Amino acid sequence: MTVTVERDGRVAHVRLSCPPPHHTIDLRTLGEIVTAYHTLTDPGRGHEPASVIVLSGDGPSFCQGGDIGELVTLASGDDGPDDVRRAAALGHRVCRAIAESPAVTVARLHGPVAGTGVCLAAHCDLRVGADTATFRLPELALGIPPAWGGTAARLAMDIGLSRLRHLVLTCDAIDAPTALEYGLLHQVVPEEELTRATGVLARKLARRHPGGVRIAKAMLRSMENGYRQGDLTHLDSELFAHGLLHR
After folding, report:
1. pTM above 0.85?
2. Which residues pair with 108 in a beta bridge?
3. Strands 104-109 and 126-130, how do they pair?
4. Are 51 and 210 contacting, i.e. CB atoms less than 8 angstroms apart?
5. Torsion of CA 174, 177, 181, 185, to 10 degrees
6. Which of 4, 35, 183, 237 has CB atoms 3.0–4.6 Å from 88's, for a disulfide?
7. What separation, in Å, do the N-terminal and C-terminal C-alpha atoms of the chain show?
């Protein structure tokens, strides 16, 4: 398993294992994330649904992006176009599983966070980062369109279109204080305090009434959807696949 799940009362911890040397995430891991989020909040599983889900990464970083080599291999196969479209659609599913979870979702971020790592974090409700963390959207530098999981629209809402434009076009990394200023992070703490700070936040959130949280999240989603008016994120899978296949 590349994803491990632990329960601490009403708080669940979903941990990614992005292997060295590149610490990137593959399609198998993305599928495991979808399964974990649905399982943890399904009341029919014989256990109390999690009220809070903390997403974190083992090793020196949260996640440094997607496994581009895996996608290139898919693209070169006999069913390359369809395989790449399915892979891109999986990205949309995993981001929706996180964003639409009835639990409050928290990202615990450290080290270089890039590409897919930023996408996963962006779809969490709240984000806590170590003061040494950095954030980067390198897609254009890799010849790939920045269309994955509806992340561009999500970030445009959270940090503003002007800041998003700079991140996408320059592919420059920003540090944790800048990410906090942008609204990409909600809290920055020294790296040695990251686990404690995330735990304190998770336990605080777990005290909220699940029914109230569900209504609040639905209300916030409706506000977000109202601003979008003609949601183009459903085209992300096609745009990503076209860009990868024709780069």
Report:
1. yes
2. 128
3. parallel
4. yes
5. 80
6. 237
7. 32
Q: From 229, 199, 3, select the one nearest 94 (Cα to Cα).
A: 3
Contact between 189 and 131 (Cβ < 8 Å): yes
Residue spans per domain, the chain? 3-193+229-245
CA separation for the pair 75, 85 (Å, rounded): 9
Specify the pairing of strand 174-175 against strand 134-136.
antiparallel
SS3 95: helix
Nearest to 117 by CA among 129, 128, 125, 109: 109
Output the six-digit token pair for 84.
């790449």
CATH no. for 3-193+229-245 = 3.90.226.10
Dihedral, 132, 162, 217, 6 alpha carbons, nearest 10: -20
Mean pLDDT, contiguous 10-residue spans, the chain (247 residues): 90 94 92 96 82 96 91 78 84 93 97 96 98 96 84 91 96 98 98 98 95 90 64 59 63
